[in-house]
Design brief:
The protein has 15 helices and 4 strands. With 261 residues, it is mainly α. It has one domain. It has a two-stranded parallel ribbon. Strands 3-4 form a two-stranded antiparallel sheet.
């Protein structure tokens, strides 16, 4: 094995060497972004919250409580408004400067990142529960339908996108609300309470999506931006109608959601 050793005290030059030197082995786009100063700041901010932000694969033993950087980008893209890129063009999220800066910038707040990351965990948990119920339980027709949606890899990101829009409705969305939204700290950092609320949000949105998608070409809707927007608009209308008829229905969510400064 040949090893190249370079002695250098210029951090900028070191970063350039890391970024451009390795041409023999393919490097994923997200791996080239780990040297971004913004990522260093995010890692430091997570550490103040006692959360391990894993920037590099294999750098440490992974725990279920860790936030994985390579997984976070596509989740953010879906929540921030582009679920198609989360599924089809995830490399571009890191390769294209403008797309990368829509996910991570100087104003990025780790509480927002953590909220969104945990929302995806709730989606995965819901998917697993539906699968187990279909395999081992006595599922309803609605549960069978919702389980089938997850056959499509893009559906998870569409669900996260619709959740973002419904949450925006609940908090009377302001500009860039999706980059400011989180839960109050007493909920966000309490695993049981956090998972309980996020799971219920997923339930509300998924049931509304199922109500709209019945009898429709589901894949035809979720594979295009116009189709996804149509789903989101109709789900928001259903949720808004329930909110007007029964104002207390979503209080558990609205009372615990917070817009970060």
């Amino acid at each position: 094995m040949l090893v190249r050793i370079i002695e250098c005290y210029d951090q900028t030059l070191i970063d350039s060497v890391i970024r451009y030197n390795n041409t023999q082995n393919p490097i994923k786009a997200w791996e080239l972004r780990v040297i971004d100063p913004i990522q260093s700041r995010i890692k430091s901010d997570f550490e103040t919250l006692k959360i391990n932000y894993q920037l590099r694969r294999g750098s440490a033993r992974r725990r279920s409580s860790d936030v994985l950087y390579e997984k976070l980008g596509p989740i953010l893209s879906a929540f921030y408004g582009d679920p198609m890129a989360s599924h089809k063009n995830r490399n571009e999220l890191y390769e294209t400067e403008s797309k990368y800066r829509k996910l991570f910038d100087d104003n990025t707040n780790v509480r927002n990142l953590y909220f969104i990351y945990c929302l995806e965990y709730a989606v995965a948990r819901k998917q697993n529960d539906l699968r187990n119920n279909v395999i081992k339980g006595t599922p309803t027709e609605d549960q069978k339908s919702m389980h089938q949606y997850f056959r499509y890899a893009v559906f998870k990101y569409v669900l996260i996108y619709v959740c973002s829009n419904v949450i925006g409705l609940w908090v009377k969305a302001t500009d860039d609300f999706n980059k400011k939204i989180s839960l109050h700290d007493k909920i966000l950092f309490d695993q049981e309470k956090r998972e309980g609320i996020l799971y219920k949000i997923i339930d509300v949105v998924l049931l509304a999506m199922n109500s709209y998608l019945k009898g429709k070409d589901v894949y035809g809707k979720i594979k295009t931006h116009p189709g996804v927007k149509e789903i989101s608009d109709n789900v928001k209308a259903l949720v808004e109608q329930v909110d007007k008829m029964m104002p207390e229905t979503y209080k558990e969510f609205t009372n615990n959601l917070v817009l970060l400064k």
